[in-house]
Amino acid sequence: MQYRRLGRSGLKVSALSFGSWVTFSNQVDRKRAEEMLAHAYAAGVNFFDNAEVYAHGQSELVMGEALKRLAFDRDTWCVSSKVFFGRVMEPRPTQRGLARKHLMDACYAALRRLQVDYLDLYFCHRPDPDTPIEEVVRTMNTLIAQGKILYWGTSEWSAAEIATAHAHALRLGLEGPTMEQPQYNLFHRRRMEIEYAPVFSEYGLGTTIWSPLASGILSGKYADGIPPDSRFNVKGYEWLRDRIESERGRAQIQAASEVATIARQLDATPAQLALAWCLAKPNVSTVILGASRLSQLEENLGALAVYERLDPSVIERLEALTEAVAD
Asked: What are the catalytic residues?
């Protein structure tokens, strides 16, 4: 495994990490979660990603119980939670957003579900137009002072919002966001590469990349339709199915088949090549893997070997053939 600093912080995270979005509780029970977490840890993965909204809190319960049973030394791994959407299907006003009350309530609840004393990383899952960014900065620093979180960050915030958070932190003598969790893949790259360029340069922001396979499209598994065990068939994720069945989605599936052709030439799977591309890009601290079964995780961990022999000319080819369907 390769380890990278999380931005300018001193924390080193594995280049490949493991997350639970869609899968844990929905497709993966505690026993299978334990099996995959054990395999990931043995491969050198030291960061496990979660969020309050995943399976309405059940994902964190599954991960917490599995990690407790595995009993890895706590100082060898990192775990995250994310806050914004709330845990219940129809949250009341105080059960969602980034107000001080929900930031703190959600943090304490995540600690209980994950069965840990502190979160290594705590993300604001989306920006909240109803809460002043200064309030968010102050509250996150309160949680740091309490020892409940070590680093705080954002997910899918604009560069301007991230810069504003840092400006408040600098003025108040507090810690600004250390990391951002953006979507980044061959089909979704302009925010990461263009919009965020100033905040990478100015603040040394780290990144924990989600959806590196574009919800599985880049794995090539949708070339012949949607398999029965796909996340697109999970209740509550119909929006993913609508996206893949759109005109743009069909065009991306076609482009993914061309990525697969290049992968075969490199003796790699399409998923491994797409993940390797992401690993090779600047400002990527860690790429979050998702899997519903051990064989998927084993395949995806093989991306590190593909990355280590990836030629710049291949990167150029991949970007050229997906440019027309990328945003």
From this structure: 54
